[in-house]
Specification:
Elements lengths: L2 E14 L2 E5 L14 E4 L3 E6 L5 E7 L8 E5 L9 E3 L4 E9 L9 E10 L6 E7 L2 E9 L12 E9 L7
Length: about 170
């Protein structure tokens, strides 16, 4: 079954201590290709779309319910004037997400996951899970001080954000 996720719709807001750094998708993103800054992986389809109000958003289409590892990857680059993504004590990320599990027998039984990779100065990979309702728009806030396994996350900066749109079983 095909599921549609409009992730980071309109913007992503990173609350990094007292600093807010929005990603609006108005920047010069390159979707897929050799010099990608946003790409699809494991069978998902990603694109940057424009809403009726003119704001841009990242759309992720999850194509096969048998492939839980489908994802979208966002590479942050200094060439686009972006900061690294920071995680650790007191830091959160908030984004709006639209998902539709119409016709599914278990709506609300899905979990998304945000994974941080390409750590600066040896910062380790971290994964953060969040529930997905499958019933339209929802605002998601993730505490970046504790990973999905409950371990404390030390301050660290990351160059790659990986979004898994259908990870796990909602637990």
């Amino acid at each position: 079954m095909k599921y549609l996720y409009t992730f980071f719709a309109l913007f992503i807001t990173l609350f990094l201590s007292a600093q807010t750094s929005p990603i609006t998708f108005d920047e010069a993103w390159t979707v897929n290709g050799a010099d990608w800054t946003i790409k699809e992986d494991e069978g998902s389809n990603v694109s940057i779309e424009t809403a009726t109000d003119g704001n841009k958003y990242l759309q992720v289409v999850y194509n096969d319910s048998g492939k839980d590892w489908q994802n979208a990857q966002i590479k942050l680059t200094n060439a686009m004037g972006q900061n690294y993504f920071s995680a650790g004590p007191g830091k959160t990320v908030t984004f709006d997400l639209w998902s539709d599990h119409t016709g599914d027998t278990g709506p609300g039984s899905y979990t998304g996951m945000l994974k941080l990779e390409q750590g600066v100065d040896g910062a380790p990979i971290h994964e953060f899970s969040f529930p997905v309702s499958g019933t339209g728009w929802e605002s998601v806030t993730i505490d970046l001080s504790t990973d999905k396994g409950g371990a404390a996350v030390a301050d660290g900066d990351y160059g790659l954000i990986v979004l898994f749109t259908n990870y796990g079983t909602g637990n």
